[in-house]
Amino acid sequence: xxxxxxxxxxxxxxxxxxxxxxxxxxxxxxxxxxxxxxxxxxxxxxxxxxxxxxxxxxxxxxxxxxxx
Length: 68
Prior knowledge:
The chain is α+β, with helices and mostly antiparallel strands. It has one domain. The chain contains two helices and five strands, in the order ββββααβ. A hairpin with a 5-residue loop joins strand 3 (20-24) and strand 4. The longest helix is centred in the middle third of the chain and has 9 residues, at 38-46. The chain starts with a strand and ends with a strand.
């Protein structure tokens, strides 16, 4: 999956395709989250704090694979 760089201290890159969200963290680890609604991905991109939104809306809420 193609990921784009983002301006965040907590997240390095993000990618989204058909309900699958991939997040690369600054340490290089990549995690894949399944069945994530597109609106949650868009909220992540628009968040003032991506790290906070990730912790509140994504982490521990969606099935996760990783590190890949």
